[in-house]
Amino acid sequence: MNLQVVCGQIEGASARRGTDRDHDLVDALRRRDSLAAERLVSRYGERAYRLARGITGDGPDAEEVVQDAFWAVVRKIDGFRGESAFGSWLYRVVANAAYQKLRGRQNRRRDVSLDEVLPLFDERGRHAAPAADWSPTVDNPALQAEVRTELTAAIDELPAAYRTVLVLRDIEGQSNGEIAEALGLSIALVKTRVHRARLFVRKRLGHWLTTIAATATARAS
Asked: Is 202 exposed, middle or buried (0-12, 13-18, 19+ CB in 10 A)?
């Protein structure tokens, strides 16, 4: 099961990255163009929401985060020196605002421990149990809406740090280097978190797909 392909199905396709194309947007923001904020929302609104939603795990919180982050971008655009891509800088602003929102919650939800649910490995680092190929089920048009729902639920169960890198890598299509730059992490740590997050989501989807297959078999017999 290719998790990147399945993740892309959440929005129909992975978002395309933009770097140099943003110079026009940056110039408009610096000139305080009356339409600059609208262009910012049009270009990055959905992607910023997905990132904020991925970190906070909550739709209304994500909307507040995006509003606060975009307002901060508009106010602090002169602080953007172009040392990194504008998109990476914006993602960092959004991520910081989302983590601040998480810290401000009075009743934090309990994130699952990945060590409790990740697949087991043998002494050589290989899967202790064979991994099933669920591609036919995932590719079934009749089940894709349910797959998206289950995938979203699995991602929501991830700890915030893991949700963030998974959303940026597999949904937004960012490279490990871009993610590291945006979040202030090492590339090695980004790779580790992405790998562990994918394993977790695969296992969660595997449980659900096993149930679907068992139900279908029972009905056919």
From this structure: buried
Residues 88 and 154 in one domain: no
Q: Do the beta carbons of residue 31 and residue 42 sit within 8 Å? A: no
The dihedral sign for the CA sequence 142, 162, 181, 188 = negative
Q: Which pLDDT belongs to residue 45?
A: 95
Cα 58 to chain centroid, rounded: 13
How far apart CA 58 and CA 44 sit, in angstroms, is: 19
pTM (2 d.p.): 0.65
User: What is the tens place of the pLDDT at every residue in 146-161?
Assistant: 777 887 888 888 888 8
Burial of residue 67 (CB within 10 Å: 0-12, 13-18, 19+) is: middle
| Residue 219, CA distances (Å) to 204, 207, 215, 216 in order | 23, 19, 6, 5
User: Which H or E run contains 214?
Assistant: helix 187-220
Is the same domain home to 96 and 120? no
Cβ-based burial of 41 (10 A; exposed 0-12, middle 13-18, buried ≥19)? middle
Structure confidence at residue 35 (pLDDT): 92
Structural domain harbouring 31: 20-103
Residue with tokens 């959303």: 167
Cα–Cα distances in angstroms (integers) from residue 218 to residues 6, 150, 208, 214, in the given order: 26, 22, 16, 6
